[in-house]
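For practice. Supply one:
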Amino acid sequence: MEFRYLGNSGLKVSEITYGNWLTHGSQVENEVATQCVRAALDSGITSFDTADVYANTAAETVLGEALKGQRRESLEIFTKVFGPTGPKGHNDLGLSRKHITEAVHGSLRRLQTDYIDLYQAHRYDYETPLEETMQTFADLVRQGKVLYIGVSEWTEDQIRAGAALAKELKIQLISNQPQYSMLWRVIEEKVVPASEELGLSQIVWSPIAQGVLSGKYQPGQPAPEGSRATDDKGGANMIKRWMSDEVLTGVQKLRPIADEVGLDMAQLAVAWVLQNPNVASAIMGASRPEQVASNVKAAGVKLEPEVMAKIDDAIGALAERNPDKTHDSSPKTREA
């Protein structure tokens, strides 16, 4: 495993972060989830990402149990706040002072830790003044409950405004967590340049495009039994955008490129996002321990420019690049 600094901070994170969205507390049994976390630790992963909204808080609980007994100082634990939790009442979501304060205490309890290394605003809250949100984050940092602040799926302008307030409040806003893969490149035009300027890194999710870039989905054929595309708990809905024969045919063109560099297709996909110097870490999920052991082989891989060019040629116009798609990520109203 190799490590990179997160933004303009002294915090190092593993190039691969283990994330438990759509898996722990939902897709896989707790025993298997714990086995996946142990496999991540065995492979050298030290960074773990979750969110209170995942499986309505259950994912945090599973991760906390799985990490019990580990040396806390050797881990970087990330979680997020915004989405609806609990009974989903009118104050059970968003980035108000009330919800953030209550949410962080719940996360600390479920994760069985005294502090969170990176606390992230899971989306932008259009109904709460940004000053209220950032002041609350600053208070948590000063209280020692949170070490660093990050955001997720914020636009360039939102990141700039948040960074300006963070500087004024003398806290560190060091990361953004966006979707990023060969097929989803919307951050490249605006978000990445702004982040580089302001001292933020990207911690990217879905680098394998929900598993599509692994090559296991074949054009014109049904999805493999037990795959995410057959999961009616949320996985199938998330992956459906990539399940056209056109996309799946294009993805198969990556197979000889992966063979050429001695990687499988999933490893190639993860290695590809890590070639972006503004990416500090790629989040990898798993439903089986062996997936962890395989995907971590992407860490430390250097893809030559000619290989990157071949990947661009293979994917071509199939990649979504419209920067306005980031603006669509955050809901414009907070609804209970």
Observations:
- The chain is about 35% helix and 15% strand.
- The mean pLDDT is 91.
- Residues 97-111 form the longest helix (15 residues).
- The beta strands are 3-5, 12-14, 16-19, 47-49, 76-81, 116-121, 146-151, 173-176, 201-204, 279-284.
